[in-house]
Design brief:
Layout: H1 2-21, H2 23-29, H3 34-70
Length: 71
């Protein structure tokens, strides 16, 4: 949950950018169906979340290892 708070501005930026440029409308005109659009968005959002979650996990492991070694 804490990691998601760092991604919120990025998610909101992408949403506003899509609305500003009417990207989804242009994709529909070019023949992309809704399921493909949402699938790609889901994969991208999941990848972003996974990167942040792995980063936070790595920091947690590093700090717990250093605390254990210093005791």
């Amino acid at each position: 949950p804490f990691a998601v708070s760092f991604l919120l501005p990025l998610y909101l930026y992408r949403l506003v950018l899509e609305k500003q440029t009417k990207l989804r409308v242009m994709m529909r005109i070019m023949g992309l169906n809704n399921s493909s659009y949402w699938f790609v968005n889901y994969i991208l959002d999941f990848a972003l979340y996974l990167v942040v979650a792995l980063l936070f996990s790595a920091v947690e492991i590093a700090t717990s290892t250093s605390r254990t070694n210093s005791s």
